[in-house]
Design brief:
CATH superfamily of the largest domain: Glucose-6-phosphate isomerase like protein, domain 1
Largest sheet: 6 strands, mixed
Mean pLDDT: 97
Strand order of the largest sheet: 1-2-11-10-8-9
CATH class of the largest domain: Alpha Beta
Enzyme class: isomerase
Structural class: alpha/beta
Oligomer: single chain
Number of helices: 19
Keywords: Cytoplasm, Gluconeogenesis, Glycolysis, Isomerase
Pathway: Carbohydrate degradation; glycolysis; D-glyceraldehyde 3-phosphate and glycerone phosphate from D-glucose: step 2/4; Carbohydrate biosynthesis; gluconeogenesis
Subcellular location: Cytoplasm
Low-confidence stretches: none
Distance between the termini: 55 Å
CATH architecture of the largest domain: 3-Layer(aba) Sandwich
Strand content: 5-15%
Pfam family, one: PGI
Number of domains: 2
Helix content: 40-55%
Length: about 500
Amino acid sequence: MSFPKVNPTQTTAWKKLQYHFEALKKVHMMDLFSENVSRKSDFSYQWDAFEVDISKNRITSETLSLLFQLAGETKLKEAIEAQFSGVAINETEDRAVLHTELRNFKTMKPEVTEALSQMKVFSEKIISGVWKGHTGKPITDVVNIGIGGSDLGPDMVTEALAFYRNHLNLHYISNVDGDHVMETLKKVDPETTVFLIVSKTFTTQETLTNANTVREWFLETASEVAIAKHFVAVSTNLEAVQKFGIASENIFPMWDWVGGRFSLWSAVGLSTCCAIGYKNFESLLKGAHAMDIHFQETDFSENIPVLLGLLSVWYANFFKTETEAVIPYSQYLNKLVPYLQQAFMESNGKGVDRNGNEIEYQTGSVIWGSTGTNAQHAFFQLLHQGTKLIPTDFIVFTESLHKKIEHQNKLLSNFYAQTEALLYGTKGEEMETPYKVFQGNRPTNSIVIKKLTPYSLGSLLALYEHKIFVQGVLWNIFSYDQWGVELGKKIAVEKLAKLQKE
């Protein structure tokens, strides 16, 4: 089974969409709602604890029909089958893309089952206090040292699930800027801290620089023998890890078939597992797997990741939008946007297609945003009255974890008010000054979830992973390599050599 390589602009559907766009581009969504009183229900989708409303988009049923045709002509269904079948769809690196196997408990690979068991045992020892530091004191702090996918995912999930956290203090060191590592070390006690070094090759410059600095700091008050009780690694480079002083039983695996930005489900998420406990970590995985099944098995007409991915293509390639905003109305999700920035922009920021040809159409939208309601007092002016069209995802959980009903009602009222204001604007109202006019007709998706739990968070993150996949297939690009980060690394090594000689 080969991965499809279809130039979308050469399809019949693309040409039809161009004509359709010309007819629809100036239509106001208000008129579409007036013409169809059941539009909201017609364009809303229920799945599990999710309700996804795409009615506030500049689309009609014909738009979706043509987008489904485009998905068919670019062989999206075949691409989905290829990924889940383990085909090496990351062809430039000759790797399969199977992060979904990290959360499929029915057909889980033996090595994944073993790694999860190892994570369970380790995390329970740390949480219970059975694991002691070299002076006999229980562990109070866990520090994750990594960068990119070895930092953004675990940090984001640990923050998002803070409600479910135990007594451990979690810290994340990523930037090679020495200020980051030194400020973190001020907060921890070497006798009661475990450091998790997460690096597939154990050669990543930022991670190894920080790890060595931490090691030197630790050895100021302890012997090298003590390293075994305070340092753990997630890596494939066993020789380098053991040379660092880490005991073989404290090494967790990584695999080539899991890309870094999709690795939080693996032992890369060990810090999260320690923070929320193995049971909650497993629930996170199961929530993601439920979305995997939905994506793999549901008809495109009801398939939420497919629908959201198709809408992105519609805006990027026909309306020529260049960015998408994501606004989670939950302070717990304040690190979701940086995580999605890497996931989307490292995956689909490509200018060469799967046939090796330079691309002449838009790919890889810029992802940005912040939490509501903070964002309303920051950049919503641009969303409402700016000259740029910015499709926006609004995410909210209807149930308050802390049962603060007054706060929650005000949060929800703002969530619904903003999408409505972006839709309607001041259309039909007489304004005394043009400066108060809102044109409206600004597209939004509403993702409404019952409650923030490990399970629902897993589903939400998997939803976005599959949206990335859909975009990549339709744009005919390889979403799972990241050659674009290599050139800067190479030049930095050369610059460093020069600086060290001076």
